[in-house]
Prior knowledge:
- The structure holds three protein chains of three kinds.
- By secondary structure, chain A is of the alpha/beta class.
- Helices cover 35% and strands 29% of the residues of chain A.
- Chain A has eleven helices and 13 strands.
- Chain A has helices at 21-30, 63-70, 92-97, 115-125, 130-143, 159-171, 189-206, 217-223, 241-248, 291-301, 314-324, and strands spanning 4-17, 33-47, 52-56, 78-83, 99-103, 177-181, 209-213, 226-231, 234-240, 252-258, 270-276, 279-284, 304-310.
- Chain A is globular, with a radius of gyration of 25 Å.
- Chain B is mostly helical.
- Chain B contains twelve helices and no strands.
- The two termini of chain B are 31 Å apart.
- By secondary structure, chain C is mainly alpha-helical.
- Chain C has one domain (3-15, 22-260).
- Chain C is 73% helix and 0% strand.
- In chain C, helix 2 (22-50) packs parallel to helix 8, helix 9 (142-173) packs antiparallel against helix 12 and helix 9 packs parallel to helix 14 (242-265).
- The B-C interface holds B 23, 27, 30-31, 34-35, 37-38, 41-43, 45-47, 49-50, 53-54, 57, 185, 187-189, 191-192, 194-195, 198-199, 204-205, 209-211 and C 23-24, 27-28, 30-32, 34-35, 37-38, 41-42, 45-46, 48-54, 175, 177-179, 181-182, 186, 189-190, 193, 197-199, 202.
Amino acid sequence: MPQILVEDLAKTYRVAERDPGLLGAVKGLVHRRHRTVEALRNVSFSLEAGELLGFIGPNGAGKSTTIKILSGILRPDSGTVLVNGRVPFTDRIAHVSRIGVVFGQRTQLWWDLPVIEGFDLLADIYRVDSARYRANRDELVDLLRLAPVLDQPVRQLSLGQRMRAEIAAALLHEPDILFLDEPTIGLDAPSKLAVREVVARLNRERGVTVLLTTHDMHDIEALAQRVIVIGHGQVLADSPFETLRANVLAERRLIVDFAHEAPDVTLPGVEIRSRRGQTLELAFDPARTPTPTVIAAIAAAHEVVDIHVGEPAIEEVIARFYALHGAGEA
Amino acid sequence: MDAARPYLAAFSSRFLLMLQYRAAAIAGFATQCWWGGIKVMIYAAFFAAAPAAAAASPMTLAQVITYTWLAQALLALTPWNADPEVALAVRTGAVAYDRLRPVDTYSLWYVRGGAWMASRALPRAALMLLGAGLVLPLIGLSDWAWKPPPSFAAAAAFAISLPLALALATAFLMIVNIIVAATLTDRGINVLFNSLIIVFSGNLLPLALYPDWAQTALLIQPFAGMMDIPLRLYVGQLQGSEALLGLGLQVFWTVALILLGRVAMARVMRRLDVQGG
Amino acid sequence: MNSAALLLRYFSASLRSQLQYPGSAIMLGIGAFLTTIIDMLAAWALFDRFGQVQGWGLGHIAVFYGVVSTSFALTDFFTRGFDVFGGEFVKTGAFDRVLLRPRSPALQLIGYEFRLSRFGRLAQALLVLFVGAAVVGVTWSPDKILLLAWTITGGVALFTGLLVLQASFAFWTTESLEVFNVLTYGGIQAAQFPLSLYAGWFRNFLIFVVPLGCVAYYPVLAILDQPDPLGAPDWWLPTAPAMGFVFLAASFLAWRAGIRRYTSTGS
Lengths: 330, 277, 267
C-alpha cells in the first residue's frame, strides 16, 4: 500500500461576495451573497515512501488545499485520504506526530526566543526522546549550518537563516513525510541552493518522503523526480519530470542574427516569437519541422550572421502548459 | 483658506474612514450600555439608601443618571490611547514621510487625532442617545433615562464646551503621541494614562460626587475639561459665573497643552532627525 | 512529556521572551496595579458620601471585589492565547500551526503566553480582599480558607469559560470580539456589588446566564457568615461556585464546534 493515497478528493468553499462601496457594505450586513468555489474535484494520486514529488500549479489551483487536507487541518467534502494508513483529520494527533510541515510564509518558531530554545520546546511538544533529540538536532544544525545563529532570537534572523531553522524545526521529531509549501519563496540564491541541497539529502539519506509545492521551477528541476501539475482543482499531469519536459518542451527556439534588418520569415510550422533590430526569435516543433530544414531554408533566403538553437525557459513552458489546459490564475 | 487645505483634507479623510467601522461602533455601544446600566443601578441604590445624604448631594440622582449616559456616549472623546496611526508610523519608520510633507507636523497630527476621536464618538453618541434618551422612556424607565438639558443656557453652555473638550482632549492626545514617538512604543504608556483619564475626567464617577474637600482640586486639573465640565454644564450643575469659570479652564488647559506639545515635539523631532528617523 | 510538564516548559519560554523587554513588562505591571486600584475608588467615594447601603459597607464591597478580581487576575495570567485568538490565530491562519502539532489546541493556546504583568492585578486584588475581610471582621478558619480557595477556583473556571467562548466565536467572526470585555472587566465591576442592589432581570442574568454571582456573591455570603437577604437556601451559598465549571464545560462545547467549523472551511 502506498504511503500517501488520495482518491477522488473534492472540496468546495463558500465565499461571501460583497458589492464595492458603502452601499455594498450595508447590503452585506443584511444579506450575504455566496459563491461556491470548487477548490478540488476528483483529485487522485498516490505516493510511495521515499518519493520526492513536486506539486505545481497557478495560485488558487488547489495546491494549498491539498496540502492542508494531507496534513490533517482541513476535512475534504468527499474522497479518501490515507497517510501511513491513517485518515489525517480523524486521527489528528497520531497523524501530525509523523509528519513535518513547513509553510514558507509563516514561522513555526517563537519570535522572541533563541532558535535553540524553540527547538527544545518543540521536542517537548512532540515528546521526542531526549537522547534521540540531541543527536538528531546536532545533525540538523550541522546539515543546515545553523550553529552560528542558535543563540539568536528568531526575529533577528535573515530570511534565509530563518527558513533553514524552520526546516530543522519541522524535522526534529524525525517525521516520515515532509510537506514543504513554497520553501524557497523570497530567498536569495545561496539560501535557495542550501534549502534544495538539504531537502535532497534528507530524501536520499533518510528516505523521507517529500511533497513540495513551489513556483520556482528550478526547485522542481533540482529536486523532483515526479511532478503533479494541478489546475482548476484537477490533476492535469502526473509524470516524471523528464516526461513532462519532453511533452511540453516539444518546441525548439532558433535565434537568428541577420546581416541586415530582420526579414519576415514565412515558413510552414515556424512562428516568429520576437523581433529586435537584426535579430529574430523563431519557434517550431522539431518533430514536424526538422531543425536542419529550418536552418537551411533561412540560410538560403537571407544573409545570416549567426544562428543559435535553444529551448524555452522552464517558466515559459509551464505557463504554456497552463494556458493549454485553460488553467491560468484562478 | 489654502493654507488650511492639507489639514482639512487630513481631518475629513480620517473622519470618513473611521465612520466605516460599524461593527466597532456597535460593540462599543453594547459595552457602554452595560457599564452605564450598572452604574445607574448602583447610583440609584445609594441615593435610595441614604435619603439625607442624597438631599445634600451636589447632584440629584436624575442629574447623575443623565451625566452617566452622556459620559458613556462621549467615551471615545477622551484620549484613551495614543493615536494608533502615529504609533504605527513610529514603529514602521513611516514617520519620516510626515516630516517630508510641506506641512506643520504638529498641526497635521493634531487634526488627524481630532478626527479620529470625533468620528469614533459620533456614531456611539447617536446610538446611546437613541437607547438611553428614547428607548428607556418608551419602555417605562424614564426615571433612568438620559434627559434633555434643563435650560437653554445649559444647552448653549454645553454646545460651546463640547468642541472645547475635543480641542483639549486632542491637545492631550498629542502629548501621548509625542511620548510614543520619543519612546518608540505605545505599550506601557497607554495603560498608565488610562487610569489617570478614567478617574480625573469624571468617567469613573462624576467629579462632584467625590468628597467635598477635594472639589476645587478636581475642578482645576486639566482632565476635568475633557468630560466633566461639559457634562456638568449640560445637566445644569455649573451655572452663571461657575459656568464661565468652567469654559475658561477648558480654554486655559487647551492652550497650555498645545504649547507644551509643540515644544516637546520640536525636541523629539530634532532627535529623530539626528537618528535618521 | 506530560501536559503539566509541557505547560511548565511553555511557562519558562514565555518568561524568557518577556524578559527581552523588561521595561514594558514592569510598566504593564504597574499600570495593572494602578488601574485596579481605581476600581475601588468609586465605591470608596460613594460610601464616603452616602454611608451604608442595605447594611453593606465598603469592607463588604472590598471582599466581593477582591474575590472576583483575584479569580480574573489568575485567569488572565494564562488565557492570553484565547483573548487574542481571533486576530492572532484565525485571521492569520496561525491556527493551522496549532493543529499541526500533536497536542490539544487548548493546551497550546494556554502555552501561548503567560502574562507576568498580571501579578500587578493579583497583588492588588489579594490586598483588597484581605484588608476588606479584616475590616468586616472575618476570622480565617481552615474551612473558610478552603471555601475561599474553592470560590476562586470556580471564578477561574467561569472566566476561563468566558475567554474560551470569546475565542470560539472568533471561528465565525475571525475577529476577537471585544464585546466580551463587558463580561470580564465589566463582570468584575458588576460582581463587586451585592446582587441585592440590582434590578431583578440583571440579577437573574448574573445567576443564570453568566453566573458571576455564583462565584462571588453567594460564596462570599457564606464566608461572611450572612444569610442571603434575597432568600437563597444556606446550602446553596457554598455550592454555587460549581456553576463556574458548568459554564466552562458549556464553553468547551462551543470550542469544539468552532474547531469543527475551522477544519471544514479552512478559514
